[in-house]
Design goal:
Helices cover 87% and strands 0% of the residues. It is mainly α. It folds into 2 domains: 13-468, no CATH class; 472-551, no CATH class. Helix 1 (2-65) packs across helix 4 (126-132). The longest helix has 64 residues, at 2-65. The protein starts with a helix and ends with a helix.
Length: 551
Amino acid sequence: MAGKRRNKNSDFLVQGSILAIASIVSRIIGLVYRIPLTNILGNDGNNYYGTAYDIYNILLLISSYSLPLAVSKLVAARLSAGEKVNAFRIFKGAFVFALVTGSAASFVVFFFADRLTVLLATPQSYLALKVLGPTLLIVAIMGVVRGFFQGMGTMVPSAMSQIIEQIVNAVVSVAAAYVMFNMGLRAGALIGNAEGKAEEYAAAGGTLGTGAGAAVALIFLLLVFMLFYARFKAGMRRDRSRPVESYSTVFYILVITIIPVLLSTTVYNISSILDQGFFKNIALAQGYSEEVVSDWWGIFVGKYKILVNLPIALASALAASAVPSITAAFTSGDVRLTKQKIASSMRFIMLLAFPCTAGLFVLAGPILTLLFGDSSSTAAHMLMAGAISVVFYSISTLSNAALQGIDRMSQPVKNALISLVLHLLLLLGMMYVLNMNIYAVIWANTFFALFMCVLNSMSIRKYLRYNQEIVRTFVIPCICSVIMGGVVFGFYKLTINLCGINSLCTVFAIAVGVVVYTLAIVLLKGVTREEILEFPGGGRIVGILAKFRLM
């Protein structure tokens, strides 16, 4: 029995790691292509680009963002009971739901883009937002297919589609932004505002890649689904489970499952668009020029968010893969296994979140200079101020998934609402009273994630009687990250004084950090041999450590 449980947990970690690795690769691709894209757009263009995306993301959240999570949860629950027919009915019902909601969202964006961008004091984002309209329908359908595969316990199709989507997105975004920048220059010359019009057109070109990437990824998923369907159909013929759920029941279950997830994710992510609306309007009212406000927001969305969101993608990927597994364990009544999966997920992500936080803090300036050629103190200070949010967002994202997996769907909504109110009060106070300008947004976001961590942890403890292990999950990774950060900072300062080449010194400092952190976490017993073996490539890692007599 213990061996079977270990195999299940190992498979869970492997599947979660597949999606996490794909997410990392996608984020790296995203980071790489955003470097030339950022250079094409400039800070003002990034402001327009980011504003369009914030509006798009809210409508995506409302229309379909919750679909993959909801579908994976419902499909996993039915498959664990052997109900393949009902699982496929969930898929078909969700597909219709996606068509309706995705079409409605696309309609709103395409025909009301001008009004939506004016609300955020950035009407120059009109074209970029309008280009994103059709993407909402494509992403909605794609989310259903991804959720179906994830509910079956396989993350490979979703992982592959993510990478394909990002590659196409990268190529098309940069090429289209470059072409449309030049088109904007010519159009602007005719009206006497070449620079502003060029950046407006370039932002629209940048968003074109999102739709192209999503379309190609959807085609890939549908091809995989067609290959897989014959085998699944054979399984449905052998399914004798009763009752078969009617489509009215399916839609009802979908709605009552989607609404809590929708409210949770919407409240959880709506802070971005609220931050932008409050910040820009208040900053302009306080006397800051439109150029300064645009520059600040361009740095925030075009550089700060990209770097901070890279490690947070790990938590999002692991959370998506954890929900079906937690749901299956909880549905079967195995409370111990449910707790074990939550603990494994938390420990796995904390092993990565803490060193990422330390690295972003001590190498903020060098990393920004390496990637974006930005040596300004403003950008570096922003990244240093927000580095700790990586840990808090990772914990809150994972704890959200845990609550959804144990059928406490409404609790993250309540926690997010409380956190959002506190977040907005802090934002207003830091802007009006402390006059912290863009740093008010950064700190308010950090506290939002912290509030979510505390409230979600209290909820999990209440409903599952779950007590999070502290020392090996949080304390040891934190200590190892502090040690790593000190060594990396000293190494960078020493080498930059010797050779003066930032790119070389930064890359070597990061490599040294990986080695130091790995040694520290092993020597301080932050991870066991058995746990490493459950990671992808764990056997090879254990072999290397054994050669040096570290394990």
